[in-house]
């Protein structure tokens, strides 16, 4: 039984806005163990990023309100820690990379200065040692002339290059968890594959777990060991990637897979999911997906819990599964 | 994946939303209150004044503030409080005059420039560039000095210097609107330029022009009083605030109230307009709405 | 290399500005009622003398030619003769310019020293009490009539408390240090003259505070706006995600980047400070360009006023050029674009 790196238990979070509050995260539970690559899939607005950013307490302090739940990262209660300790953990024990590499680096500072700043913040390396370390990190990301790159400004480099620098930097202190929020979405397809390979290679090497947020099922199928499918702020299904994608249990997951262009036959119309994502300020009572679900029935008017199927790794939040479960 | 969401209609003027925004910005409310206060007090000066503004009373010269004369008296015994109230009419009038003149001229020129384009546009913009190349105060001084010392000339000078800002604002809007598809569509219906101006350009420029105008009111009042202080604006015996500060300067060390209160009136009024203008600008800023 | 491009562009613009301004001042001069020849000649001159002066001044030539002569004069540094001082306007301005510059500089330093921290605080603690306080202070600052504030300060510190002098640049009975820079503060230090230095400091405090208070608002608002912009940027999020403390994120990452666009505002600062100088100098009997132009206006000395306008426009372009160059030095992105 591997050690747990991240445990989110029953997290519920809302954003106060005009006219009430946006219930962004609803009783989400997810777990990441040492060394595994876990994916969170869902459309925009499903609260994937919010959940992840909350794990690192990166959201602006007053903008949100936690209704319930616990977040345990490497044994620390993230909701209770003070800012100083949180800052010490960020970049060292847990790192995060984001979607848009073009704006993620300080435009007026050289790459080297930015990398060394972070490295020397968390370690006791001398300037020279830190520099060598940075060069190694970049080289591991297949960046040639790493030493020269350190002297450059971000705007002189391509998006793919910058993302590799940021990934390299994320691994600088061998964190136990790397949270990657759509890291390849903004990159060219050709670069995407390479970046993902580098990411996985480095993670395996350092035994770093990855929490990989993505909306692209194709990418996720090749990259992640396990999946969480999120919809409108809740987890609707989870399990090993292959199992979830080949035999989805939740109507939403099924609809998602059915909607993939790859699932359609030539000449057949692409199938979309009817309806729209509910307005988060005005959530329907019960299952968030009911209005768009072809199998909705009376039980759906109350929120379904996550039912475990076979072992604890596989679960689906749908009343249908209760029926099958019971059966 | 999901179909395109149906657009949600929102009322054009969401009063509740407006009130919510207003509550988040107490300073704007403060500004509005200040402006309202000044406007009321000044417009209804005869009601609030305690004395005739030009009534001379040589027995009460340079008297300190008392219940009889709230703000004291000047060197010929005139009640400063009442003079401030009546004088305020000048200052506020100048403000509105300048904004109206500059706004109107600027809007017309800007609309012409943007809509007609070509040579008209070039000529107008070159003219504006020339005006803008001189730092505004220097130009105002030069103009006001040349035109002769009077409040109207001062107002004229200030207005001329402000015109380019409105021209740019409206021209920019005109250029954008000109390219919009629906305007091109309207053109196919032979909708005249006037129609486009009225229905497409003006509504869109309204809010930035209002914001600019409100802020200009504040700075105009300051400028006008400054010109009066130097001797370029209002002349004696007009009870204009700047002029009063100037005359009071001769007695400043012993009778601080003579310059003190009129100057404070300037400060108070300008602050009110600036606070309000700032607040409105922030509220209308599309980025603000996203918060 | 890129610097030369910028300089070249600005110098071209400068030429255009000079032409534009000269056209304006020429036009305005001809708006003025009255006969300039008579003003020069004086009350007791005979018509023949006035006519001769008019001939000398070239007033009988056609307008375009007059303009051309005028423009040539400006370019060669001749701005006419002051009716009041009877000296070339250029001489007068050269004489009074350093005093204004010194005052503007000290005021700018004061305003920046207080304004930047306030602006940062306002942005970091947005919508909290400190933000409202700073914004209120800033608005009050830009709404304050400088001449009024100056008068009140004089009443308080000179009239009532007797702590500071009520006007002038230095105590009249102290010998001025030899002029090296024209800045009394610096010249006094260079000459090692402590008495003169102290006196100069005591004289510059109130006017600098007056000017500075008004400008403080401008600085605070600019910094606040720039900081708010920077704090929303992604690189700030990256820095926080990498473990930088809030303080370091603000001061090491956001603020330096916020200061960059703020530098451009410094160019505009000149306009504000000039405006303030014109008003404050009269109140404090500060012998600078502001007092000069006010006296000229009151004496109907139009050559002086027009000369002042030309010089100020010229200075404005130069300052903007300096700001552009500064911008290139501090922002690596701009350097590469050219």
Can you put this structure into words, describing what you see?
The complex is a heterotrimer of chains A (327), B (291) and C (338). Chain A has 327 residues and is of the alpha/beta class. Chain A has eleven helices and twelve strands. In chain A, the strands form two sheets. Chain A has an eight-stranded mixed sheet with strand order 6-7-8-3-9-10-12-11, sandwiched between helices. In chain A, strand 4 and strand 5 form a beta hairpin. In chain A, helix 4 crosses helix 6 (159-170) and helix 6 (159-170) packs parallel to helix 7. The two termini of chain A are 30 Å apart. With 291 residues, chain B is an all-alpha fold. Chain B is 73% helix and 0% strand. In chain B, helix 4 (80-116) packs parallel to helix 7 (151-179), helix 7 packs antiparallel against helix 9 (193-230) and helix 10 (241-248) packs antiparallel against helix 11. The radius of gyration of chain B is 23 Å and the shape is elongated. Chain C is built from 14 helices and no strands. The longest helix of chain C has 39 residues, at 246-284. Chain C is globular.
As a percent range, the share of helical residues of chain A equals 25-40%
Number of strands of chain A: 12
The general outline of chain A is: globular
Arithmetic mean of pLDDT of chain B: 81
Please tally the β strands of chain B and state the result: 0
Stretches of chain B where pLDDT is under 50 for at least 5 consecutive residues are: 1-13
Estimate what percentage of residues of chain A fall within beta strands: 15-25%
Distance between the termini of chain A: 30 Å
Biggest interface pair, counts: B-C, 47 and 54 residues
Oligomeric state of this protein: heterotrimer
Q: Count up the helices of chain A.
A: 11
Total of DSSP H or I helical runs spanning 4+ residues of chain B: 12
Sheet with the most strands of chain A? 8 strands, mixed
């Amino acid at each position: 039984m591997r050690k747990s790196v991240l445990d989110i238990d029953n997290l519920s979070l809302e954003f106060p806005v005009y006219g009430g509050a946006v219930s962004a995260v609803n009783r989400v539970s997810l777990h990441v163990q040492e060394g595994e690559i876990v994916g969170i899939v869902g459309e925009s607005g499903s609260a994937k990023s919010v959940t992840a950013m909350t794990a690192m307490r990166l959201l602006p302090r007053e903008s949100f309100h936690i209704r319930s739940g616990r977040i345990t990262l490497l044994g620390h209660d993230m909701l209770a820690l003070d800012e100083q300790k949180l800052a010490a953990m960020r970049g060292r024990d847990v790192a995060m990379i984001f979607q848009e590499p073009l704006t993620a680096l300080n435009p007026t500072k050289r790459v080297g200065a930015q990398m060394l700043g972070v490295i020397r913040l968390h370690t006791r390396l001398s300037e020279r040692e830190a520099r060598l370390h940075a060069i190694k990190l970049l080289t591991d990301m297949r960046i040639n002339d790493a030493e020269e790159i350190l002297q450059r400004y971000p705007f002189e480099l391509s998006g793919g290059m910058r993302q590799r620098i940021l990934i390299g930097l994320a691994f600088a202190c061998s964190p136990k968890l790397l949270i990657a929020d759509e890291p390849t979405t903004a990159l060219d397809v050709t670069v995407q594959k390479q970046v993902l390979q580098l990411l996985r290679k480095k993670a395996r090497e350092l035994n770093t777990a990855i929490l990989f947020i993505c909306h692209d099922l194709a990418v996720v199928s090749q990259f992640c060991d396990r999946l969480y499918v999120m919809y409108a702020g809740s987890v609707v299904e989870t399990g090993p990637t292959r199992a979830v994608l080949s035999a989805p249990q939740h109507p939403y997951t099924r609809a998602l897979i059915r909607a993939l262009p790859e699932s359609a036959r030539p000449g057949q119309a692409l199938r979309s999911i009817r309806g729209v994502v509910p307005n988060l300020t005005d959530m329907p009572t019960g299952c968030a997906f009911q209005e768009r679900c072809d199998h909705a029935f009376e039980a759906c008017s109350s929120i379904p819990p996550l039912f475990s199927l076979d072992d604890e790794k596989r679960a689906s939040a749908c009343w249908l599964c209760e029926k099958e479960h019971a059966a | 994946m999901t179909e395109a969401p149906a657009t949600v209609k929102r009322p054009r003027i969401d009063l509740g939303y407006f009130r919510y925004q207003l509550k988040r910005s107490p300073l704007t409310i403060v500004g509005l209150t200040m402006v309202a206060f000044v406007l009321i007090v000044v417009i209804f000066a005869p009601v609030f004044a305690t004395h005739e503004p030009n009534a001379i009373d040589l027995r009460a010269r340079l008297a300190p503030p008392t219940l009889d004369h709230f703000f004291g008296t000047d060197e010929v015994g005139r009640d400063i409080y009442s003079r401030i109230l009546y004088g305020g009419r000048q200052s506020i009038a100048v403000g509105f005059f300048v904004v109206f003149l500059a706004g109107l001229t600027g809007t017309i020129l800007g609309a012409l420039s943007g809509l007609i384009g070509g040579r008209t546009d070039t000529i107008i913009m070159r003219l504006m560039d020339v005006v803008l190349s001189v730092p505004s105060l220097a130009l105002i001084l030069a103009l006001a000095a040349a035109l002769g010392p009077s409040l109207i000339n001062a107002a004229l000078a200030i207005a001329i210097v402000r015109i380019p800002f409105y021209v740019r604002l409206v021209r920019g809007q005109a250029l954008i609107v000109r390219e919009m598809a629906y305007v091109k569509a309207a053109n196919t219906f032979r909708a005249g330029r006037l129609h486009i101006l009225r229905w497409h350009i003006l509504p869109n420029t309204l809010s930035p022009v209002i914001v600019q105008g409100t802020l200009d009111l504040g700075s105009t009042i300051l400028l006008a009083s400054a010109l009066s202080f130097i001797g370029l604006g209002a002349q004696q015996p007009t009870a204009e605030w700047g002029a009063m500060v100037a005359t009071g300067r001769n007695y400043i060390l012993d009778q601080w109230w003579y310059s003190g209160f009129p100057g404070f009136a300037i400060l108070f009024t300008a602050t009110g307009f600036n606070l309000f203008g700032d607040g409105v600008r922030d509220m209308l800023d599309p980025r603000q709405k996203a918060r | 290399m890129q610097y030369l491009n910028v300089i070249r562009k600005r110098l071209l613009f400068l030429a255009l500005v000079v032409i534009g301004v000269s056209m304006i001042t020429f036009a305005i001069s001809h708006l003025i009622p009255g006969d300039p020849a008579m003003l020069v000649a004086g009350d007791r001159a005979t018509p023949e003398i006035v006519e001769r002066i008019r001939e000398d001044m070239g007033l009988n030539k056609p307008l375009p030619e007059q303009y051309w002569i005028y423009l040539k004069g400006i370019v060669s540094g001749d701005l006419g003769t002051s009716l009041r001082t009877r000296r070339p306007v250029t001489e007068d301005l050269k004489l009074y310019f350093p005093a204004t510059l010194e005052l503007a500089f000290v005021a700018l330093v004061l305003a920046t020293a207080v304004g930047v921290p306030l602006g940062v605080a306002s942005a970091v603690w947005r919508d909290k009490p400190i933000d409202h306080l700073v914004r209120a202070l800033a608005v009050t600052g830009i709404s304050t009539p400088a001449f009024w504030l100056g008068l009140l300060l004089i009443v308080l510190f000179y009239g009532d408390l007797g702590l500071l002098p009520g006007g002038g640049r230095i105590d009249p009975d102290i010998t001025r240090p030899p002029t090296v820079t024209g800045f009394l503060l610096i010249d006094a230090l260079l000459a090692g003259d402590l008495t003169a230095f102290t006196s100069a400091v005591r004289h510059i405090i109130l006017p600098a505070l007056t000017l500075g208070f008004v400008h403080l608002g401008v600085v605070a608002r600019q910094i606040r706006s720039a900081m708010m912009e920077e704090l929303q940027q992604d690189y700030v999020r990256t820095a926080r995600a990498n473990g930088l403390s809030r303080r370091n994120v603000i001061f090491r990452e956001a603020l330096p980047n916020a200061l960059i666009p703020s530098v451009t505002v410094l160019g505009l600062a000149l306009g504000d400070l000039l405006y303030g100088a014109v008003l404050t100098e009269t109140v404090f009997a500060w012998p600078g360009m502001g007092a000069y132009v006010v006296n000229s206006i009151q004496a109907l000395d139009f050559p002086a006023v027009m000369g002042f306008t030309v010089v100020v426009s010229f200075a404005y372009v130069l300052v903007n050029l300096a700001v552009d160059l500064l911008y290139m030095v501090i922002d690596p992105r701009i350097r590469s674009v050219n």
